[in-house]
User: Fold this.
Amino acid sequence: MSKPNLDHLIASAVAEVLETMFFSEILGDGQPDLSCTALEAHVAFTGNSSGTVDVQISEAAARSLTASFLGESEESLSGLQLAHLVCELTNMLCGCIVSKMSAQGCFNLTSPELIEQPHHESDERIEIQRSFAIERGTLTVSLASSEFA
Amino acid sequence: MALNIMIVDDSPVMRTFLRKVVQLTGIPVGDCCEVGDGEAALSVLRQKWVDLVLTDINMPRMNGEELVRQLGLDRMLCDIPVVVVSTDASRDRIDRMIKLGARGYISKPFLPETLRDEIERVLGVQNV
Assistant:
């Protein structure tokens, strides 16, 4: 799959997940949130192709999405709920991306893991990275896959 | 008649989301119990009456595929309808889960009305 196609596929998956499950949307292109409060989670997938999906999100944006997802006020949310939400968001985005990459064949996902200390240095393993401006922050999706090999 | 529903998912926020969506659909819900994996689900199902199980696939200890297989092997539990709620939207996975005995399948992301429609289809509209 070509890079422009993967770029489009990631954007399509993010839009679908945000609009359907979080009543939110992509506002435009963005830049990765490099602040220390940004939350990041990781999921690996295997199947017809294998790889990883990492999702990084601004803390305020994660809080807003969690409130929308659970139907609760932002003030009432705990840090644990934000962490679980970012893991579930990563799980859904990974599943959506992999389903779009190959409609045929089952795939398996690992349990999403929160990355305690997000790294901001360039990672040679990352093949495609896209950042989106969303309500109250930025959402960045990084995809590494055997599809590129 | 109110339905007793079980939600099986290792994600606490997903369990909360599913419970709220089920309650918003207007389907009369009695008890709605939540567990984090297939093993815990089997343990509860052997002790209390449940009308419908909503289960994820990827979970620790016992995944959704094994849960559906185990339910099919148990004479007391094999008639409980199971709807799979998973991120895996591949045709192969859906066919595999239906073949194992799942009555319905919803791939994430999904709209709340999709969940209601699938529950109604699986249980029969007249029962909801």
